[in-house]
């Protein structure tokens, strides 16, 4: 696990049950809003 993902991307990839709650992450992530489109693309790729 050498790669770091933003919280939303991690949830898109691994599921919310294995990631800290979003509210807790958001306080540490300035990229949360910026990643919305990136997440949507990832969700399409992984078929969510």
> Mean pLDDT score, rounded?
67
Q: How big is the Rg?
A: 10 Å
SS content category: mainly alpha
Main sheet makeup: none
Helical residues, percent? 40-55%
Keywords:
mainly alpha; 3 helices; 50% helix; globular
Any overview of this molecule?
The chain is mainly alpha-helical and 48 residues long. 50% of the residues lie in helices and 0% in strands. The chain contains three helices and no strands. The radius of gyration is 10 Å and the shape is globular.
Concise synopsis of the structure shown:
The chain is mostly helical.
Itemize the secondary structure elements and their pairings.
Blueprint: H1 7-14, H2 22-26, H3 36-46
Helix pairs in contact: 1-3
